[in-house]
């Protein structure tokens, strides 16, 4: 028996996949936020195993303020990633994908918002990476960027550019579709 | 837009209702309404041909060009 994978199947799979990623990112954002507050205000030992093997103990010992700044960058990036996937699951949940007339202002806004979120993640990741380099030059040890979940800023920035271009194409698509719909 | 659709004038002259025209031309009421109210962006030749045939008129009887003054111009 032949199994046919149709577009609704792919969309359903993507919706489930987005939900899984969204939940994972929420846990990550919550964990980083909690650990930041826990390390700063309750127990400094939390820096040793900050989040998923990220060790910020040396940074905390070096300077509490620099630790706080790095943790805040991590928090912002984690929250932005969660917000980005929240907009994706919301788009799926509201069933805004319409193949009869696919170009809709909501689609343009959705892609533009993703582009902004991606750009913001890229900028914060980049600033985190540069900050980490600067801290290393000051004589402290900062963990690998991927362990700190702020790696791959170039990919995020590249993605934001691509999404901006796609949003402009969708904008033109909306104009053409409206014109087509108003052709009698 | 400087192109004015005089479909309602021709319909009144032929004493034809929108429903009747819709049936005879084969267009939906909503599409005819878009055309009549001047919201349409374009008209297909086939549609124009069908309307002219049913209303027994020329395209010029339905469409009219009135140049707009500079203060009437809408942004594109």
> What is the N-to-C succession of helices and strands of chain A?
HHHHH
CA(first)-CA(last) distance of chain B: 10 Å
- How much is the radius of gyration of chain B in Å? 13 Å
Coarse shape of chain A: elongated
Helix count of chain A?
5
How many strands in all of chain B?
Answer: 2
Mean pLDDT value of chain A: 88
- Specify which chain pair forms the largest interface: A-B, 5 and 12 residues
DSSP helix fraction of chain B = 40-55%
> Per the principal axes of the C-alpha atoms, what is the gross shape of chain B?
globular
- Give the topology string of chain B: H per helix, E per strand: EHHHHHE
What structural class do you assign from the helix and strand content of chain A?
mainly alpha
Largest sheet of chain A: none
Extract low-pLDDT stretches of chain A: none
What does this entry show, briefly?
With 184 residues, chain A is mainly α. Chain A has 5 helices and no strands. Chain A is elongated.
Write the layout of secondary structure elements.
The complex is a heterodimer of chains A (184) and B (76).
Chain A: H1 7-42, H2 57-62, H3 64-93, H4 105-137, H5 153-181
Chain B: E1 3-5, H1 7-13, H2 18-25, H3 29-36, H4 45-55, H5 59-62, E2 63-65
Antiparallel strand pairs in B: 1-2
What does this structure look like?
The complex is a heterodimer of chains A (184) and B (76). By secondary structure, chain A is mainly α. Helices cover 73% and strands 0% of the residues of chain A. The relative contact order of chain A is 0.12. The longest helix of chain B is centred in the middle third of the chain and has 11 residues, at 45-55. Chain B has helices spanning 7-13, 18-25, 29-36, 45-55, 59-62, and strands spanning 3-5, 63-65. Chain B is built from 5 helices and 2 strands; from the N terminus they run βαααααβ. By secondary structure, chain B is mainly alpha-helical. Chain A binds chain B through residues 178-179, 182-184, and chain B through 27, 31-32, 34-35, 39-44, 47.
